[in-house]
Amino acid sequence: MRIVLVGPPGAGKGTQAAFLAKNLSIPHISTGDLFRANISQGTELGKQAKAFMDAGQLVPDEVTIGMAKDRMSQPDATGGFLLDGFPRNVAQAQALDAMLEAEGMKLDAVLDLEVPEDEVVKRIAGRRICRNDSAHVFHVSYTPPKQDGVCDVCGGELYQRDDDSEETVRTRLDVYHTQTEPIIDHYKGQGLVVTISALGKVNEVTDRAMGALRGEQAA
Questions:
Q1: Residue 128 catalytic?
Q2: At what angle do helices 90-102 and 61-72 cross, to 10 degrees?
Q3: N or C of the chain: less Cβ packing under 10 Å?
């Protein structure tokens, strides 16, 4: 299957992408991984992306599209892939359509993870990270530490990242609604969108997504 995963920040896209890709035996292709791989390998596209990033500028669509095209042409992606973070806007979606059409391929589904905005803010703004080890993550509501502000694992101080403040989260949501959400309408016109609730336990959401995709595949 060839799938695009869409959803607001805090919807659990990265977690669900990993589980879904494993269940479907297809590679998980994320924009973040594309950038890191191209930059670390010193590819021409990676050099271009790094120059824009170092200058504090957004990486142009054509660079991101070029990276995605290279990755999707690799042998492990010939039988399908799950795209996470690409396309990020309608221009990228149109470029993806053209790429696939040129190869005689098409998307099977666009999986839209739906989460109420207040829940997104609660999920992200409630995160607390250990200053000693960023792998130690807690949540004030869902996985609170035994002692407020103290890591259960090592006793380090727990803090809220600047990116996790409510103001920053709402700004990120505004960007999502303005830039990324319109691709859902773009793909609805092609009959590809499958919307599921991303509320509940991780395995519940995965089961819900797999069931929806099986229905899309059968259709």
A1: no
A2: 30
A3: C
Structure tokens at 87: 């396309």
Chain segment 171-205, per-residue pLDDT in tens: 999 999 999 999 999 999 999 999 999 999 999 99
* Helices 31-41, 44-54: crossing angle, 10 deg rounding: 110
What letters, b where the CB count within 10 A reaches 16 and e where it falls short, cover 151-166? beeeebebeeeeebee
Catalytic residue among 36, 106, 161, 214: 161
Q: For residue range 44-86, what is the model confidence (pLDDT) as tens digits?
A: 999 999 999 999 888 999 999 999 999 999 999 999 999 999 9
Question: One of 172, 188, 208, 214 is an active-site residue; which one?
Answer: 172
Write phi, then psi, for 196 (nearest 5 degrees).
Answer: -130, 155
Global confidence as pTM = 0.88
| Contact criterion met (CB below 8 Å) for 153 and 57 | no
Query: For the stretch 15-41, what's the b/e string if a residue is b when 16 or more beta carbons lie within 10 angstroms of its beta carbon?
Result: ebbebbbeebebbbbbbeebbeebbee
170 is catalytic: no
Active site residue 122: no
Q: Which amino acid is at 186?
A: H
> What is the spatial distance between Cα 18 and Cα 23, in angstroms, rounded to a whole number?
9
For residue 3, what is the enclosing H or E element? Answer: strand 2-6
